[in-house]
Amino acid sequence: MNGGRPIGEVVLDVQNISLSFGGVRALSDISFDVREHEVRAIIGPNGAGKSSMLNCINGVYTPQEGAIMFRGRTFRHMNSRQVAEMGVARTFQNLSLFQGMSVLDNLMTGRNLRMRCNLFQQAIRWGAAEREEIRHREFVEHIIDFLEIQAHRKTPVGQLPYGLQKRVDLGRALAMEPQVLLLDEPMAGMNVEEKQDMSRFILDVNDEFGATIVLIEHDMGVVMDISDRVVVLDYGRKIGDGTPDEVRQDENVIRAYLGVEH
Amino acid sequence: MDTPNTTFPRLLMAHARARPQAPAVREKDLGIWQTWGWADVAREVREIACGLASLGFKPGDNLAVVGANRPHLYMAMVAAQSLRGVPVPLYQDAIAGEMVFMLDDASVEFVIAEDQEQVDKLLECRALRQDGAPPLRHIVYDDPKGLRHYAHEGLLGYDALRALGRTYDEAHPGFFDAAVASGEPGDVGVILYTSGTTGRPKGVCQTHASFIAAGRGGVETDRLGPGDNIMSYLPMAWVGDHLFSVAQWLVGGFTLNCPESSETVTSDMREIGPSYYFGPPRTFEGLLTAVSIRMEDAARPKRWLYAKFMALARRVGADLLNGHPVALGDRLLYALGDLVIYGPLRNVLGMSRIRVAYTAGAAIGPDLFRFYRSIGVNLKQFYGQTETCAYVCLQQDGKVKLQTVGAAAPGMELRIAADGEVLVRGVSVLKGYHRRPDATAEVLDAEGYFHTGDAGVLDAEGHLRIIDRAKDVGRLNGGALFAPNYIENKLKFFPQIKEAVCFGHGRDEVCAFINIDSEAVGNWAERRGLPYGGYVDLATKADVLDLVADCIGQVNADLAAEHGMADTQISRFLVLHKELDPDDDELTRTRKVRRGFIAEKYAVLVDALYARRPEQYIETQVKFEDGRTGLVHATLKIVDAKRFPAVRAAA
Questions:
Q1: Closest chain B residue to the Cα of A3, Cα to Cα
Q2: Core vs surface per residue A15-31: b (16+ CB within 10 A) or e
Q3: Residue B260 to residue A150, Cβ atoms within 8 A
Q4: Which residues in chain A are classed under CATH 3.40.50.300?
Q5: pTM score, two decimals?
Q6: At what angle do helices B175-182 and B38-54 cross, to 10 degrees?
Q7: pLDDT of residue B649
Q8: Is B261 at the interface with chain A, CB within 8 A?
Q9: Which of A250, B456, B548, B617 would be A240's cystine partner, CB 3.0–4.6 Å?
């Protein structure tokens, strides 16, 4: 799958993560790693802990046990800003775009962390602030071109159809120039054609932007087609890990997805 | 312009010398309009040509051009011509199976493609090509996105091609200039494929001389030149685009503007404000439909104002444009209307600066035509086909008649054959079909007349009026002449009706299939609080059938009032359960209905119409864009239309 980029070192290593909310154990003792430039999928039935896993990596949840190693540095407690600064961006299962703002402005918010001018400079938009904005706008325009949303540049996001909003969400994450991109169900609620487009964009992001991709997805077909390796979760436990072919033949996975034969 | 013995590359070089800095081409890229001066274009063409030469492109070779209207693709066409090669633009939405036919037919070894989508298709074509056909050796792509890791042989990026060209140019100084100088006006300058309404597509070979003559005729008639702007957004493979965006561009020296993407044409047009515009009737129809929908949603006072002023425009607008006398009071009112309605409306349509707009390709509804002229858009018609560089007739300013396509263009002669077919002779007539002497012999007679296949009549002033395709014109059993397109076009003027197919030849009466416009009718249904789920559901709603019946009633009233047309009023109709689609072969790529194919495919429905059954069940296989197929089924009601007694014109 991976076009031509060599899959590299381990960039993200999840070590023995356990997470519980009160008495509910959302994740228990999960370990897996993500290598540079690969497309890594996390799959599992509803309530398997996929989104919790992503939220741990993203710094939204702090796991009670275990650690996450990012490029050789081990973290036990992180907040989401730190994670973002380290080059990890994400999209959301339930879109969390600024509905009233234009596509362009939404994408520009993705550049926020990289802006150096202070609020006052930006408010009068003169000199350094203007030059900076032009630079960032150019980057954002590349993303607009890449995602083929030129026709919607000035459209308020709330007026766009769902599939396009998902694309804008991806664009905003891309605007951060992430090294690792976390995608939470990028294809949920899409029709076949939109899914195909999205798959193509994900592969192109992986290829053109060189981003490592961790994605959660329900649609097994899509996952198997675009991922290099797949982790399977069920009831907060890891029940499988490997290439799509290995996972497809794994007894535990078949049982979790298809039920046990009696 | 004063040297008649010239070629397109030489015209380009002349512009580059005369006005090197003047804008030749613009394209919106990354949200900003980028401009190429004539000298820039000349340099780039030189690099591409030398690049192609270094890959082994020889005089007489064909270069297929596949993609949307990108400046690089237009330049590549001129580059191929510079080497005495022939560009072959192909419809970019054709599927591989269709495209491979033309690639084989034109023995194409070199292709320039827009992007990954087209490259993928061409690679598929490589595999599909028959034994014996030359291989698709070189595929040059413009947009590298997604193509970085393609390791296929002969795949080359546009910038890499230019780099090759620069090296080749340095190593062979004078090569390019000599190649351009060696070109003859009688050389084939382009091969354009016909849309294939009848059988397989045929490659039409047009010389530089023909297209330059056709371009010059248009440029001189409308006094086009530097400073004028045109929007290039129609398929490059269509003869009209080649006439306007290549021939007239290079003859006239105006500025070509390429939109950012096919979806942004409307907003890009507003930004550029072209002074010269062309579009097939359906584009104008689409724009008007969009305006009508927004008007219906507007507040009551606005609707009232719009209705008032549009009535005034209908009364005097066209006369003002034609320079006929108009009462002072109406003139003043029209000026007020221009301030509050027509001006803003033209602005929304992107037509504020239009001096000349053209339409062709199919007959335009008189009401639609009148609408644009009445709000001050100088919309005119021309007539022509691929075989005549789209240049046979054009309407002159001040002599625009609604029903005709104008008088013979400069350099053209018209004649009407005994059976009503329009025959044409003159500068723009084709050299021949590519590798089809048999087909050429069928359309070109001994006197050099090209048989257009259209039925028409000449009026007292020599203006041509096209009735229909000669072969489509039939007769009802009662003896009345039946012109299906004529009726269909009347139907399609209603924004609610997207397509119509009429039957009647060899029958007692006329029956019709209707396709509703899902946008217009959907909007109408929403406003009335009518719930519906998808196209099929909407198309079978009783209210929608009533709506369509009203439209048909009006057309029948119209037909009843026209001499000789009263018998061809529509008796019964049904609304089809699926939209007619080129992917299902029901429409051509230029979206003309393929009546015969449709009659065969939906024979059950035709039979039901003539058997006067109340309804009919139908099941149809449809092809989706991704190549999969599915089944659509519905029970369609057959509705009787209101008919009118023939109105006898008072003697």
A1: B149
A2: eebbbeeeeebbbbebe
A3: yes
A4: 1-87+179-262
A5: 0.81
A6: 100
A7: 46
A8: yes
A9: A250
